[in-house]
Design brief:
CATH architecture: 4-Layer Sandwich
Strand content: 25-35%
Largest sheet: 7 strands, mixed
Order of helices and strands: EHEHEEEEEEHEHEEEEEEH
CATH topology: Nitrilase/N-carbamoyl-D-aminoacid amidohydrolase
CATH class: Alpha Beta
Number of domains: 1
């Protein structure tokens, strides 16, 4: 059966932490109202209020429960016993934390602030097996491939991409979807002119005639503004295509 997913394109420049969280809650409500079963926020949507970012988790748990929706919190700085992490958390419709993913490949000044994650977690939910690669993680093909090999059904890529990085970002997203035969949900920040939005949902399209060709297809994308995009992805089809493609690998040849 098709799965309805959503990417929430949050805007920056909120006057307060409470306003930023309240607006994120509105985006989650909008996704739920459109029938989405899972919604993902972008990376660093609380950067301007980073000292309070950890407090948002409880609010996100409450709104996931009230809207009866799976929620990926994007990725924000979080103070932990092992140091500051850039953490993305999966919350279920009961308001419980399923698991989390720390950003592994820190970018530029993040290296001066945070501790890098050391592995990629496969998060198992009623919807399917979920992988999360945070923004710069998606540059490295091993990240998505390792999750695909372990059975991930969909990949979420919460990001904070600038206008000059948007075209390469979209190319990376399409490539990861194609080479791993996996749907990708990638929300981005909106704050023009530096952050253009462009949140994207990618599924796989199979040619109906001639040589069997699989293509990554953008099934939803966002223009300007703070908004959610919702689309259906076919994880059953992707699973079949992925199993077939990965079975043709020859690992002993790769060193």
């Amino acid at each position: 059966m098709p799965l309805k997913v959503a990417a929430a394109q949050a805007a920056l420049g909120k006057k307060s932490y409470d306003q930023a969280v309240e607006d994120a809650e509105k985006l989650i409500h909008a996704a739920s109202k459109q029938g989405a079963q899972i919604v993902c926020l972008p990376e660093h949507w609380l950067l301007e209020h980073r000292k309070q970012a950890g407090n948002a988790t409880d609010r996100m748990m409450a709104v996931a429960k009230s809207e009866r929706i799976f929620l990926i919190t994007g990725a924000n700085y979080l103070h932990t016993k092992s140091g500051v992490r850039i953490r993305s958390t999966l919350i279920d419709p009961e308001g419980h934390i399923v698991g989390s993913q720390d950003k592994v490949h820190l970018f530029l000044e993040e290296r001066n602030v945070a501790v890098a994650g050391r592995e990629y977690a496969l998060l198992e939910a009623a919807l399917g097996k979920i992988g999360i690669t945070v923004c710069y993680d998606n540059v490295f093909p091993e990240a998505a491939r390792s999750l695909a090999l372990r059975g991930a059904d969909m990949l979420f890529v919460p990001s904070r991409i600038t206008s000059e990085g948007l075209d390469p970002w979209l190319l990376y997203l399409k490539t990861r979807a194609l080479e791993n035969r996996i749907p990708i949900i990638a929300p981005n920040i909106f704050s023009p002119p530096r952050y253009p939005g462009g949140s994207t949902i990618i599924d796989l399209k199979q040619a109906t005639h001639g040589t069997p060709v699989i293509l990554p297809e953008i099934v939803a994308s966002a223009d300007a503004g703070e908004k959610v995009i919702v689309a259906e992805i076919n994880i059953d089809q992707a699973r079949q295509l992925r199993q077939k493609r990965l079975a043709e690998r020859i690992p002993e040849a790769y060193g």
